[in-house]
Fold this sequence. Notes:
The complex is a heterodimer.
Chain A: H1 2-14, H2 22-31, H3 35-40, H4 55-84, H5 90-105, H6 108-119, H7 123-147, H8 151-159, H9 164-197, H10 207-215, H11 219-241
Helix pairs in contact in A: 2-11, 4-5, 4-7, 4-9, 5-7, 6-7, 7-9, 8-9, 9-11, 10-11
Chain B: E1 2-11, E2 14-24, E3 29-33, H1 40-47, E4 55-60, E5 63-64, H2 70-75, E6 77-80, H3 92-96, H4 98-102, H5 107-120, H6 125-128, H7 138-150, E7 156-160, H8 168-185, E8 188-193, H9 196-202, E9 205-210, E10 213-218, H10 220-225, H11 230-236, H12 240-246, E11 264-266, H13 271-281, E12 285-290, E13 293-299, H14 300-304, H15 306-318
Parallel strand pairs in B: 3-8, 3-9, 6-7, 7-8, 11-12
Antiparallel strand pairs in B: 1-2, 1-4, 4-5, 9-10, 12-13
The structure holds adenosine-5'-triphosphate and magnesium ion.
Adenosine-5'-triphosphate binds next to helix 1 of chain B.
Amino acid sequence: xxAGSLTVAxxxxxxxxxxxxxxxxxxxxxxxxxxxxxLLTPLHLGELTPFDPPLWRxxxxxxxxxxxxxxxxxxxxxxxxxxxxxxxxxxxxxxxETLVGLGQTVPTFAILALAVPALGFGWQPTLLGLIVYxxxxxxxxxxxxxxxxxxxALDAARGMGMTGRQRLVRVELPLxxxxxxxxxxxxxxxxxxxxxxxxxxxxxxLGEPIINGLSQQNTALVLVGAVLSALLALSLDAVLSLFAxxx
Amino acid sequence: MIELQGLxxxxxxxxxxRDLNLEFAEGELxxxxxxxxxGKTTTLRMINRLIEPTGGRVLxxxxxxxxLKPETLRxxxxxxxxxxxxxxxxxxxxxxxxxxxxxxxxxRETERRVDxxxxxxxxxxxxxxxxxxxxxxxxxxxxxxxxxALAADPPVLLMxxxxxxxxxxxxxxxxxxxxxxxxxxxxxxxxxxxxxxxALRLADRIALMNAGELAQFGTPDDLIHRPASDFVRxxxxxxxxxxxxxGRRAGDxxxxxxxxxxxxxxxxxNARSALGIMLREGSDALAVTEAGRPIGVLRWxxxxxxxxxxxxxxxxKTT
Lengths: 247, 319
Ligand SMILES: Nc1ncnc2c1ncn2[C@@H]1O[C@H](COP(=O)(O)OP(=O)(O)OP(=O)(O)O)[C@@H](O)[C@H]1O
Ligand SMILES: [Mg+2]
């Protein structure tokens, strides 16, 4: 019995999810200059001239936008979810849920278009759009996760003399973490897609080959952008899955 | 140890608890007994200020609990809630270590303490230390809940129907285990229950409540033999005396005498079943054996006068 549970514990710690590396690896291969053109040329979808700026630069810009927005979303969304789930704040919580739901129904393009007059062209309006969209799953999952925390565990925590802060840090956040993390993954993956739209506003990133391809009627160019952003999304999802608590 | 003075909790116009005056003696186990909704949980939670009273005072060793920070007060009082409330993301050892950690006790010392407590509640530390609450049975989880409440060695323990969620067999076992623990550690325990048998079995004193007020406060014998009102009599039921016998061992009543020719029972059999055997066998005395050896004779008259004697017998046993 004891020996058995020990083995389980050890193998659980040792097994590293190597599968996670698949998508980042594919992405890196596709970023080697010449690889994507060689793969796409046989399809006769259009001509691919050497990229300027190079694809890895576009990918990094894209990644930077998404990472920055996710960081800001976490910094805003988690405290917001915590704040509205404190006792006696039902009204505030409902308001937050309504607003977040509303954010989801406004089309991406509308937010970006509205942001341009205020912030001008460039990466700033795109970042704003990504933050607004990214907040939706993080806040709503954060609220759902915190609300789902076992009431009896919280009661016990209070009865044992934990302060509100200790309950939050030691009980609520750890228990809400899996649901919150699922929201972060959704938010990040969506934003990789949303960020391509930013290229239309001059944000750069992997939307650039897509937009150029569309205007030049070069499907191959569109495919390059689409494949790379899809691989980026899958890579980020895989990497984020590492943070989820494993059994 | 703990004194309630005119304690009151009012919700709107209705009283959950009303003018409650009680004193819980040091080292005793007091059962808060009463029908559903009579205010037991409210009373218990006013002691560690999970609920703030609307009137009256709670004194802990003579000190008004309102003068203490609620967190400080609670860390000094063990608390077992009915739903157990183990932390699902922490393993058994981490759950038990909660209060010592909050108090900043050294980790090494706490680790030793955790193992000691798991042993005490009958769970082998090596096997259970690293299990998650989801891997425990209901009874095991209850045991961990009790160990967690005892972890910082608080002089006072509040328990809200700690054995409520168990099947009768597991409950009996855990009750026995807890009674032993209580005898050994001499904690001041206040235990909420609506189970009369549990109260009769475990409690030194019973505070019987009805509709937010105290109906009677006394020893189990007081309530059974000297009920203060019709409510007390009715609540305990006609077979209260039998119920009390059910919580005692036949061996506790046996006196040295000649057992020849009498029907034989084991000392561990409960006294109520022994009485049943007397009725069945048509005999007013039984031979009592322990581990196969005769230890004495149990007579009908011993059971009849149990009330007065049990306590002296038990005292003899423990000293
Ligand atoms: N937050 C509250 N608001 C209004 N009434 C309440 C509240 N909490 C408890 N009550 C009322 O106070 C009374 C006592 O409740 P309490 O929980 O103390 O009962 P109890 O004796 O523990 O019952 P049970 O055996 O069912 O657990 C009940 O009538 C209940 O409806
Ligand atoms: Mg109750």
